[in-house]
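Field log, afternoon session.

UNIT: design team B
ACTIVITY: writing a sequence onto a fixed backbone
BACKBONE:
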């Protein structure tokens, strides 16, 4: 008994579709993060496959992908929440304009099992943006 990988993957896709792609705003991003945290706390510990061997078990691959999808979804949502501007494909309806102060990379690290975010200025050694 437990949760099958495709159920988790479908749930992650649904959360990102509802809260992480279009019309991003702080409230929706926080709802998406809450949804991903619920998956991490309630579903991932119960992740299971029908076959109990790792050899030639395609569902095992799906399980590994499901775990990675949860991590990547959380990183995506939290990074979008940190970036308080709109730039390129990253659009925030609560911050509709690009902000020169946000010409930065967002760096994500895992520290003591938790995601840590920092920023680093973008450098332009060859061409300067307008």
């Amino acid at each position: 008994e437990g949760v099958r990988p495709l159920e988790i993957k479908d749930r992650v896709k649904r959360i990102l579709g509802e809260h992480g792609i279009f019309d991003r705003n702080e409230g929706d991003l926080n709802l998406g993060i809450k949804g991903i945290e619920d998956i991490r706390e309630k579903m991932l510990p119960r992740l299971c496959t029908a076959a109990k061997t790792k050899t030639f078990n395609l569902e095992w691959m799906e399980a590994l992908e499901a775990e990675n999808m949860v991590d990547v979804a959380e990183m995506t949502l939290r990074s979008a929440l940190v970036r308080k501007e709109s730039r390129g494909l990253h659009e925030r309806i609560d911050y509709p304009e690009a902000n020169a102060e946000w010409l930065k990379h967002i760096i994500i690290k895992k520290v003591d099992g938790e995601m840590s975010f920092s920023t680093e200025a973008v450098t332009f050694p060859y061409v300067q943006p307008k």
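LOG NOTE: The beta strands are 104-111, 114-121.
NEXT ACTIVITY: expression trials, pending approval
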